[in-house]
């Protein structure tokens, strides 16, 4: 992803305690409430967005990115989807959503995962091309999943976030027959020509891939 949402100057933010993380997440105020069984799959409270009120991942909250921040497509018919790129926002959940809704930013991700409880927002439909990797070829064929937090702190990478994100990645990989390995599930820093460092050394890849594989078996 491009722009300051993935800036690598993580030291500018103090490392939060887990209590601080949970308190901050509880205070999040978006234009929509968190999805519940009654509201999952619905659009924002404003009732606007470039698509009907439908999400690709059950239970995700529809938080549409501005159409200026992604490219419409017909994937996988127009382009194959063969990898998942993992990001960290360097922003709070609601601030990251606001970046994707700002047409001047020219950046987005398909999904945004909250730290405290693993809540998932979908910002771009999977069939469309989010601008997240900083590499047009990678953007064309990938799903971008970004996570609330800062790369210099493990406190943001909660069990709830890992579990929710891994279940999402498992579902995406099952939909598009993506192999469950580090060649096809990669960090933003591993994308060719990428200039960002996320998800950083604190991201537990072994634990994450174990959860992804368990999620795939459970499916």
Compact overview of the structure:
The chain is an alpha/beta fold and 219 residues long. 25% of the residues lie in helices and 12% in strands. The strands form two sheets. A six-stranded mixed beta sheet has the order 1-5-4-7-3-8, sandwiched between helices. A two-stranded antiparallel sheet has the order 2-6.
Name some characteristics of this structure:
six-stranded mixed beta sheet; 219 residues; globular; 12% strand; alpha/beta; single chain
**Helical content class:** 25-40%
Structural class of the secondary elements?
alpha/beta
Shape: globular
Order of helices and strands: HEEEHEEEHEHEH
Provide a count of the helices: 5
Round the Cα radius of gyration to an integer and report it. Answer: 16 Å
Content of β-strand: 5-15%
- How many distinct beta strands? 8
**Strand arrangement across the biggest beta sheet:** 1-5-4-7-3-8
| Poorly predicted spans | 6-52
Largest sheet: 6 strands, mixed
Amino-to-carboxy terminus distance = 30 Å
Could you describe the 3D structure shown?
The structure is a single chain. Helix content is 25%, strand content 12%. It contains 5 helices and 8 strands, in the order αβββαβββαβαβα. Helix 4 crosses helix 5. It starts with 17 loop residues before the first helix and ends with a helix. About 21% of the residues have low confidence.
